[in-house]
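User: These chains co-purify. Model them together.
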Amino acid sequence: MRPDIKYIFFKALPLAAFFLSAFLLLSAARPVRSPRPASAAPALPRRIVCFSPAAAEVFFALSAGERLAGVSDYCVYPEAVKKIPRVGGFYNPNFERLLALSPDLVIVQGQHEKVADFCRSRKIPLIHVQMDSLAGIRDGIFEIGRITGKAAAAKALWDGIQRDLDAVRAAVAGLPRTRVFLCVGRSPDGLNSINTAGGKSFVSELLTLAGGENIFADLTLPYPEAGKESLLTRAPEVILELRPGENLSASRRARIIADWDEMGALPAVRNHRVLILTDEFLMLPGPRVGQAARVLARTLHPEVKLP
Amino acid sequence: MNSARLAIEAVSFAYPHTGWRLQPVTLSPEPGRVLGIIGPNGSGKTTLLKLAAGIEKPASGRVLLDGADLHRLDSRRRARILGYLPQKCVTYLDFSVEETVALGRFAHGRGAGFLTREDRRVVDDALSETDLLAFRKRPVSTLSGGERKRALLASVLAQEPSVLLLDEPGAALDLHHQVRLFGLLQRLAERGMTVAVVTHDLNFAAAFTHKVAVMAAGRLEALGAPGDVLSPEFVGRVYGPLLSVTRHPTLGTPVILPAGLPGGAP
Amino acid sequence: MSRAMLSPRAYLAHLSIYAAAAAAAVLLAPLFGSETVSLPRVLSGFSALDNMDAEIFFRFRLPRVILAFVAGGALSLSGASLQVVLKNPLAEPFVLGIAGAGALGAACAMSIPGLLWRMGPFTTVGFFSLAGSLAVTGLILRLLSRRAALSMSTVLLAGVTINFLCGAAILLVRYLVSPQVLVAMDRWMMGGLDVVGFGDLLPVLLLLLPGVALLLLQSRSLNQLAFGEALAFGHGVDVVSVRRMVFLGTGLAAAAVVSVAGPIGFVGLIVPHVVRRLSGVDQRLVLPASFFAGGAFLIFCDLIARTVVAPTEMPVGIVTAVAGGPVFLRILFKNGGTHD
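Assistant: Joint model of the three components:
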């Protein structure tokens, strides 16, 4: 019987496709299989994949950048981190690439179930860092110091940060506290759904240290939506709009400030004290936290002298 | 009541997907007469009625209502002359029986459409004609199939049409109410109304209509008085074998009965 | 079981109850908020800058309450009309793809660089959302005009498919944008009535009110669809025109709401059902009553959204479902729920 066109389409092609894909899967799986399925972290891991931008910064601050085999899409500082293979972001971790890098340790920030599950199933050692406060930064730095065998350097790094922070504290001591509204996000088209930072957040902690007072410090959620009525009655003297990492043209900057004209009753708007900060380290609890505190202090109190 | 004329002139139709065609039909139901439209399943009875009611547009030919093209008429104006009861009706909103009947006053009312005294009289008449006065407050969803059919018929009567087109109005009715229905149709015709009724019940058509139009395979096969048209040979040709035609003992009209089962089994 | 026919008196009595409830909501809701304002101080001066109470009341609460009213009303009214035209109790204002296309428009405006700017009272987010919704409405109307015999289930399926297509396109946009924009997009999808001043309301009302009027004018004809299109046609209803008007009215009203408040769900689905349970099925009553009831309901939900977790706020779309869902289930099962 002559093989007719229907046979080719409905029988032969799917079969061929099945075998081809099975072959590809098998051959592709072999080279990326992890050589050691050990679960415990090796004494000094050398192929680390880091999903936390702050933690990745710590590696470089400790001159241990060469230990990083992969970093997340969000890691952009320092310059050297950009040469390291990318393993995706929060929503789209690239597990194939992750496997191919055969890491001996994975570091994630806070909850990251997708990656955690994956590491468990592949028996890849996993560490959670919790770098979302000054204390968390300290713990993260010491943890990474331990992992990389650079405990002394870690201690030196943290001492330096503390010196910076103390200098800022000292400079603003005795100055009147500026009442600040922190705007960490809003709908791109106006003053709808404005998110602020609660008292327990990292930015709020820094703001207090830098001589400001977060008008929504009483909120327990880290980044809640601020009601506009409450914003009006709390009457901030300064509005700090944080847009970390954004590259704003002068006209865009002017438009962002002009958006606030709708709330002309606010002292901050009336007195033209709506300020935009774009430094990406402002919302990044890492080794540059001292720098961030300095930027905030200078913004709120232009008159102070900082070393 | 004026005696409006419905004229179907060389109307043809084709269903685009099945290829089924209605061959050109010319037919003018007479005022004051009940016309029965009969024929086997799929012969085109319902399609013919839909064309006559304006639900479907003819592929060729035209339907005239009082001399005007049906599809050029304003729909309210059409509804004041021509009433149409479809074969199948869903019930989506659960009105009461009298509200349902009052829906028939749509073409007569204006504004918010609250009923005038005249409207109420017409609705009451329609309810009593269809033997539904006792049910007037009942939600339609609580009625039986036959009662619901009568309520919808009443809503068409409430239009006070002079041409009445009914598609299987007796389908879900018990025998008593079927007889009453045809009695009502006769009375309406006596008042000058033009009545055309599609029915699959040959005996009711034979006994209680003035004329029958017999459809077969998309063609108007015959038109005439039931006693003349429904000969045993004709019924056998149009409907197929296994039927026998006799005479009604008192009415003298043709009666069609099953004559046996296929293969001659008892 | 019996039911009286709707007389003009009963009609007015019913409708005035709904209208009174709506009026009470409009008048009382601005008195409550996350902050306490004193009414004497509100009324003492209109110069907002030195009178914070008046500022809060007139520029922040009142416009928001009015927006909640017209948006809730328009969504309920659209839902009530569509449920009849599509003969589907699950129909709601967004079923024709209006929300999906609106969301896609908003997502594009938020994420494509250079597409985000302000033109007077409009922002491009609202504008693109509006454009998307109206394009879909136009598409459905075009389909209808080309094939008058189009079945309503086909229209329904087309709408659902449009929603899916837009959803997929949004996912693609989401995949490409930065996390900050992602947060803003997610927030937009939850719906919010966060407007400032009456300037934001005007462009919305210009589309919304004609849509509402168009729908209310169809109420008598919608009654006729109770037993299907064929009988309605026989009774003298121009069924094709009724469908067109309902789709156009719904399109205008829902597009306007989506463009300013995002896709607020649930209101347009449940309020008409509740009204029918309370006041029967006569659309001459159901449509305006749904408008009033929907408006009052959304005012109530927004009041919860802006007070319960004060000084922060909740997305109103969450409140409509959480507040309305259990109530709706109760009504559904209490009144039999056996036939429909």
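Chain B has one domain: 6-260.
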